[in-house]
Structures are given as C-alpha cells and as structure tokens.
C-alpha cells in the first residue's frame, strides 16, 4: 500500500522478489494509477474501497505492507476489520499526524499546496519531493522508479490525499492491533522519525521494530535489497 506521493508501480522490485513465493498485490488508492477516484476522500472511504478490491480478488485475509499514507490506511483497516489481517508491516508511517491545535497541519498543507496553486504539477515537483525524502546514498534505479511513479499522480488526487492525511489519528487504538507486526523506519527519515516510530512500536502488542541505517522515507526505493531482506526475515519468522 503506497504513500501519498507515489502509486503502486513503485513496488515493482518487491513484487518481483516475492511473487514466486506469495500471491502479491500492489493496490492503488482511489484516483491513483488506474483506480477510479472518489469524491469523499476519507480514511473510512479508503478502507471501504480497499475492502471492495480484496473481495473482488477473493482475498479474505492477507499480510499487508503499508508505507506512510498506506500505513495509515492499513491501521484504519486493522481497527475496523481485524479479521482481514494475517500480519502487517507498518513502514515509515505514524499513528497520528500533526498537533492537537491543528497549526502544524495547516502549515504542512500550505507548503505542499502552494506550488500547485502556482501551476506546478507533480511531474515538476517530483525531483524536489524525492530529494527531501531520501537518505544518504539512495539507489539511483530506485529513485528513477519513484520519479516515474510520482509523475503519474493528478494534482487533484494528491491534494485530496494530503487533506485526508492531516485528519489521521489512531493513537488510542494501537493496543488493539492484532497479529504479527513489523514497524520499519529509516534512520534519516524526517517525516516518520525513528524515535516516533519506536515509541509507536512499543505500544503495539508483540511488535518488532527495525531501523534501517542511513535510509530516509523511501526504503523500498533507496535500498531495495536491504528492504526486501528485512521483509523476508520478518515473513520467514512467522
């Protein structure tokens, strides 16, 4: 499950790695990739669309990997429909967004929407976005894959998703998350800092926590080999 500034195609390396052993599915949120948009972009609506996709694919229960925004949707799914969750990886995500008074959220939206209000597209902004999200020495093939993924996102959908993200808060439900859980962070991630993710992991029953050294917010692109091995180690431990 992808982040706000990417879509399902950026999981290509992971799909190739794991598809020989598992049935692998990369889901596009509404409006991303070839997924039909929705007018009311809320976490409950996103979970409903995700459930519809699972039903159409005849998947009653699965292991999920949720990155950033995708990790938020995954937490919402796990709280509303725990019977769907065989296990999950919460990767560079958070249990809540912003501060209680809303000032941080307003500034977050202002900074990210201002360039688009001046006529910029995601294709224009993609190099800046990815540069701000990566760590020390990102894999260049991965970065190109990320750029191609970001280029495809319509401005309207990106804005809808950003406005949705700032409403997220599942802190009170962390103790309810069931099944094996891996909480995965990057040492250089400023969007989902390791200290925050480690604290999040400490509140999830029996969660494992791993921090990837030198890596930012896009581990599956920055260090696909290390990322894949980390997921593989988690899967074979179950």
Automatic annotation (TrEMBL):
Gene3D superfamilies: alpha/beta hydrolase (3.40.50.1820). GO terms for molecular function: catalytic activity. Residues 2-222 form the AB hydrolase-1 domain. InterPro entries: AB_hydrolase_1, AB_hydrolase_fold, AB_hydrolase_sf, Epox_hydrolase-like. PANTHER family: MONOACYLGLYCEROL LIPASE. This is AB hydrolase-1 domain-containing protein. The lineage of its organism: unclassified sequences, metagenomes, ecological metagenomes.
């Amino acid at each position: 499950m992808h982040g706000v500034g990417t879509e399902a195609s950026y999981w290509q390396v992971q799909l190739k790695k794991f598809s020989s052993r598992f049935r692998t599915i990369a889901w596009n949120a509404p409006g991303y990739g070839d997924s039909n948009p929705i007018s009311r972009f809320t976490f409950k609506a996103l979970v409903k669309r995700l459930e519809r996709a699972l039903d159409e694919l005849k998947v009653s229960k699965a292991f999920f990997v949720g990155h950033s925004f995708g990790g938020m949707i995954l937490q919402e799914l796990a709280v509303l429909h725990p019977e769907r969750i065989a296990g999950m990886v919460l990767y560079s995500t958070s249990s809540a967004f912003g501060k209680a008074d809303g000032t941080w959220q307003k500034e977050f939206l202002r900074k990210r929407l201002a360039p688009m209000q001046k006529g910029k597209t995601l294709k224009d902004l993609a190099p800046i976005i990815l540069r701000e999200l990566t760590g020390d020495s990102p894999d260049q093939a991965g970065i190109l894959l990320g750029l191609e993924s970001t280029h495809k996102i319509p401005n309207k959908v990106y804005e809808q998703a950003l406005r949705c993200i700032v409403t997220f808060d599942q802190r009170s439900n962390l103790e309810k998350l069931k099944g094996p859980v891996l909480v995965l962070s990057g040492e250089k991630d400023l969007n989902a800092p390791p200290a925050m993710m480690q604290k999040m992991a400490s509140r999830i029953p029996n969660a494992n926590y791993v921090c990837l050294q030198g890596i930012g917010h896009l581990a599956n692109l920055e260090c696909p080999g290390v990322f894949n091995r980390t997921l593989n180690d988690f899967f074979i431990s179950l």
